[in-house]
Amino acid sequence: MAASIDGVFEEILKSSILSARVLVVGAGGIGCELLKNLVLSGFEDVEIIDLDTIDVSNLNRQFLFHKQHVGKSKAAVARESALTFNPNASIKAYHDSITSSEYGVNFFKRFSLVMNALDNRAARNHVNRMCLAADVPLIESGTAGYDGQVELIKKGLTQCYECQPKAAQKTFPGCTIRNTPSEPIHCIVWAKHLFNQLFGEDDPDEDVSPDTADPEAAGDAGEDALKISTNENGNVQRVSTRNWAQSCKYDPQKLFHKLFHDDIKYLLSMDNLWKKRIPPTPLFWGNLPDAVAGSSRNEKESGLKDQKMWSIAECAQIFANSCRNLKNQFESLKEDDHLVWDKDDKNAMDFVASCANIRAHIFSIPQKTRFDIKSMAGNIIPAIATTNAIIAGIVVLHAFNVLKNNFESCQTAYLRPKPTHRNQLIVPEKFLNPPNPKCYVCSPKPEVTLCVDVNSMTVKDLEEQVLKKTLNMVAPDVILDGKGTVIISSEEGETSENNPKKLGELGIADGSILKVDDFLQNYELSVTIIQRLVPKDGPDFEVVADPSQLKPKDDDKVESSTANGEPDQDDDILQVVEEDDDSSQQFDSKKRKTDGETEGGISKKRRTEDVIVVI
Fold first, then answer.
1. For ATP, which residues are the binding ones (predicted)?
2. Is residue 163 a known part of a binding site?
3. Does domain 3-165+382-428 have CATH number 3.40.50.720?
4. Which of 269, 380, 417, 580 has the smallest count of CB within 10 Å of its CB?
């Protein structure tokens, strides 16, 4: 292969390519294209890591994989396929998660550069921090349909992946999901929660029963009903959904009657909810409509199998079949194990699609096809092979410039679905984006302010909701500055007794400073506590990277926000920034919210938007 690039590159670049060691993180749509481009460009020392196995749905765009590879490691098969392009290349494959403790800073220091081809924000954040700690250039990339983006991340020279806020997935109030759905997505989220309640990881915050703490609901009636475990008058069953389902042996008719009749009758008893809304209609198993509302028979039967509309009677039969199959799968597992919802698992997908459509019918919401529900439930944005190929090509061009130390030529580039007014499809920014001096990751002294009620937040919530979920840490250690009290330890069991305690019980008060150290990410952060009561229907806490944002703002100043960020997707998909055609504007984003489509804390009254992060 060395001879094949003779005369293609200048000697210095050729030598750099042949000696470079490159890490590719992700072996999906972009990852496959990247690996092929690298070995054909003369790179001979490449390592690739991916946790996933190959699914049938990957085959339309991840061209290194074929039908016989389904179920095998993406990284391993990508390696085998890439070697057919260049047998002289040395490719090492890891079927593992890049966030594993085995891949620390010293692992990253071995590489000349790192290329991200990831499918989720948490892993992107982690690789960003590891590359900053190892001082290794990172080329970040992603696609969303016909859109694409490539950017260089270089410590001290460019902004890092977390310098600017990322738009979070849309979130919904828990009471809307449980009591008053008005859109198909509300029913789909409810159905996914129901799957977890019956067969998956049982999370109390994903309870699907009517929410008696809904402030709109009828006052004392709901609280009284909480004391009732069951009755014959249609009141909601106030026991564990899984325990009840197991007691009736997952009988589909009994499940149907409880979920789509009894619980609905209970909701109807909350009079205040239906003063300005169309009330739901309870269903009876033996009397279900066999037609699709608003559709003719020809429309109902047209199209591909997954694109046909189901009648409610059909939904009930699909619900019954999927319940039986999932029950068998669940009961075959080891004790304390559970099923994990997967959009590509037929029974799991049938269960969610049928439940969502039945609930939609009850609340007079338009039904969706199984195809549409799969896209919405799996947060899927269509991935296009040609877009992946173009973006992967730009990544390798950036790699050439990195190896030549020509960083100034690595401006962030955007691929557009249609030409700009300058007739450009690939639009580079004019300059490299400099680091955000207020970034809580790459600034010289990372610090944030945490506004929280220390008398209500527990240490466990601090670790899981603030440090891990919001600030993207993996294994944080926390010490109360000035007192030396260890609040959280990454050593298993060392501070477990602190988990249920309120922050105030451990001496954390207004003005306290927490020193946080994530050894795995080689990342230190100073957290200043500001005591505040949780506002009604407001976020439980607020993380502020720029203290000036805590000051009142002038009424005539309007904050701007970006739309860059990506939902967790099936592939290496990034929802790219929409901006002016010359792509030269600097971002001035101020707010972001954490990911999540469900409420994730203690109070069931609280909206699912339980945190605000201000940069």
1. 26-31, 50, 58-61, 74, 97-98, 119-124
2. yes
3. yes
4. 580
247-299: pLDDT as tens digits: 899 999 999 999 999 999 999 999 899 999 999 999 999 889 886 654 444 54
Query: Packing angle between helix 370-377 and helix 346-362, nearest 10 degrees?
Result: 100
Starting from the edge strand earliest in sequence, which strands make up the sheet with 426-428, in order? 90-94, 45-49, 22-25, 113-116, 138-144, 147-153, 413-415, 426-428
442 known ligand binder: yes
Per-domain residue ranges of the chain: 3-165+382-428, 174-377, 447-559+587-614
CA 301 centroid distance within chain: 35
**Token couple for 80:** 């085998």
Average pLDDT over residues 526-538: 84
Q: What are phi and psi of 547, to 5 degrees?
A: -55, -25
CA dist 480 → 448, 511, 519, 526, 573 (Å): 15, 11, 17, 10, 39
Q: How do residues 152-209 score in pLDDT, each as one tens digit?
A: 999 999 999 999 877 666 677 888 999 999 999 999 999 999 999 999 987 777 889 9
The residue to which tokens 């698992």 are assigned:
345
Integer angstrom CA distances of residue 218 from 53, 206, 215, 222 = 49, 22, 8, 7
412: Cα separation from own chain's centroid: 24
Active-site option among 175, 187, 315, 451: 175
**Residue 344 is assigned to a ligand binding site:** no
Residue 120 in marked binding region: yes
CA distance readout (Å), 316 to 41, 235, 280, 285, 444 = 55, 22, 18, 8, 59
CB 143 within 8 A of CB 391: yes
CB 217 within 8 A of CB 273: yes
Question: Which amino acid, 469?
Answer: K
d(CA 34, CA 394): 10
Q: Report yes or no: 89 and 82 within 8 Å, Cβ to Cβ.
A: yes
175 catalytic per annotation:
yes
Pair of tokens at residue 607: 């909206």
- Do the Cβ atoms of 251 and 319 come closer than 8 Å? no
Does 389 count as an annotated binding residue? no
With bands split at pLDDT 50, 70 and 90, how would you rate the model's confidence at 537? low
CATH number belonging to domain 447-559+587-614: 3.10.290.20
Q: What is residue 310's three-state secondary structure?
A: coil
